[in-house]
Amino acid sequence: MARHVIAPVDELPPGTRKFLEIDGRPIAIFNIKGEYFGLMNRCPHQGAALCEGPLIGLAQSSNPGEIEYTKLGEIIRCPWHGWEFDIRTGQSYCDPRRFRVKAYPAHVEPGASVVKGPYVAETIPVKVESDYVVVEL
Amino acid sequence: MNIQFRENQEAASPLTVKTAIADCDIHPARATRTELYPYLAKRWQHHLEIYGVHAYQGMMEGPPYPKAQPNASRRDAYPPEGGPQGSSLAFMQKQLLDPNNVQLGVLNPLNTGQGIRNHELSAALCSAINDWQIDKWTSKDKRLKASIVVGNEDGLSAAAEIRERAGDKNFVQVLLLSRNVEPLGQRRYWPIYQAAEEAGLPVGVHAFGFGGNPITPSGWPSYYIEEMVGHSQCQQSALASLVLEGVFERFPKLKMVMIEAGFGWAPSLAWRLDKAWQRLRSEVPHVKRPPSEYIREQVWWTTQPMEDPERREDLFDVIKWIGWDRLLFATDYPHWDYDEPSRVLPAGVSEANREAFYLGNAKKLYGIN
C-alpha cells in the first residue's frame, strides 16, 4: 500500500471532489464537511464514472410509513443507473451481496511528514509549511 | 511513479467492446425548443407559439412521472457545448459511437409529434422531426439511421408520411410508441402497417407514449418504478392486440420490433395466448394459426433494459425460445437506464450467437450491408 499526496488542503475545500488516476485506477477524493474520502471512480455495476454522480442521503424505512433519512451527503448515486453506495465504506445499498465499490482511506498530513515519506508525490510540489490530502492505495 | 490527474471529465465509457455493434435504440434530442422551426411551416410555428400542443394525456409536457435523472438521461451525457443530453452529434460520436465501435445506430426520437389531439399539427411535427433527423444526424454520420416518426392516431396521414419517405435510405423503420389511444392492433392503425409493409420497413414499437391511458391495466400507479416495470405489461397488451386483431395475418410480410420493454415475458405471453386461442379460436377466426407462430415469425426484440436473472441459464432459456436471431442489441443512449455493451451478455454464448446479438440481426433486419 502506497500513500499518494493528491492535493494541498486548500485545493480541496469542503463540498468539492477531485478526480485523478493512480496506477491506472480512476480515483475520486471527496471533502465532506472537512472529512476526506477516497473511492474508486468506476461503478461495479456497469462501469460508469460513479463519483461524478450526486451526493445524497440514505432513505430507509424500518416500518411502513416511517422513513429515516440519514447519512446526508454521504451516499454517492451513480450518474447512470442510480445505484447507491456509502462513501465511507463503499457498501452498496442496492445489491450489497454482489457489489461493493473500493474505498480508499484519505486524510490530511502536514507537509513536514509528507516530505519525509514514504509518500508518492511527483506531480505535486510539497512544502513543509503546508498541509496535504493523502490517499492510501 | 507518476500521478496523472484526470484531464477530461467527459471521457468516454471506461469499458469498450472490441467487436463492432449495432445500437438499435438511440435517442436524439433537440438542443433548443425551436430547433424544429426551420422544418415547420410558418403557420405551425405561430400555432405552437399561440396555442401550444394539446396532448391526449393531462401531463402536457409528456412524461406522466418525474424521471430518476435529469431528462431521464445519464448525468455524464450533457454535451460540453450546452443543451440537453443527446442533443449534440459530436458528443454522441465521442461518448457512444466511437468508443463502442457502433457500426449501425438507429435513432428513435421521443416526445415528438405523437399523441397530439390536433392531427394536422401532429403530422406536421412528425414530418419536421423526420427532416431534422436527416439534416442534423444521418446526413452527417453514415452510421446513424433514422426512424420515420408518424402521427400515430391518424392512420391515413401516418401512412402518407411513410409513403413519402419510402425508399429513402436515411430511414430504416417506422416508429410507434406502446401507449396509444387504443390497443395497437385496432383498425385505425392498420394504414400504418399496410404502408410499412409496402415500403419493406419494420415497425418499431417503443415503450412510452401519450395516449392518455394509465401505464397499468389496473389504474394509475404511485411510483416511477411502477411505470418502469409497467412498460412490459403495456407492451404485452399491445402485442396481444396486434396478434388477435389479425394484423400479422393481414400483413404477413410486416415485421415488428418491440423496443425497450424487455423480452423475458415473451414465452409466457405466447403460451397463454396459445392456450386461450385453442379454446376461443372461433371468436377470432381471422387468427388462423396459434398466436405464438406469428410472434416467433414477425417480431424482433431490442435488448435494453436487458433482463438480468440470478441464473444466466434462465436468460439463455428465454432467448432460446425467442431465437438468438431475433434479439437486437440496444443501449438506450443517452437515457439513464443505458446498457453498457460490454456488460450485458453473460459468458457462455457462442461466437456466432454473440455476433448475431450485437450486430448481425440488426444489419439483416434493417437491410444494412
TrEMBL record, chain A:
> For the Rieske domain, which residue ranges apply?
4-115
Q: Which PROSITE patterns match?
A: RIESKE (PS51296)
Name this protein carries in UniProt: 3-phenylpropionate/trans-cinnamate dioxygenase ferredoxin subunit
Which Pfam families does the entry link to? Answer: Rieske
What Gene Ontology terms describe what this protein does at the molecular function level? 2 iron, 2 sulfur cluster binding; dioxygenase activity; metal ion binding
- Which InterPro entries is this protein grouped with? Rieske_2Fe-2S (IPR017941), Rieske_2Fe-2S_sf (IPR036922)
Q: What's the superkingdom here?
A: Bacteria
List keywords of the entry alphabetically: 2Fe-2S, Dioxygenase, Iron, Iron-sulfur, Metal-binding, Oxidoreductase
Organism, as annotated: Bradyrhizobium huanghuaihaiense
Q: Does the keyword Metal-binding apply?
A: yes
From TrEMBL, chain B:
Ranges where the Amidohydrolase-related domain occurs: 23-368
Task: Tell me a GO cellular component.
Answer: cytoplasm
Q: Which GO terms describe its molecular function?
A: carboxy-lyase activity; hydrolase activity
**Among its keywords, does the record have Repeat?**
no
Region annotation (Disordered) maps to: 62-85
Give the GO biological process terms.
secondary metabolic process
Q: Which UniProt keywords apply?
A: Lyase
Lineage, top-rank taxon, reads Bacteria
Q: What's the protein here called? A: Amidohydrolase-related domain-containing protein
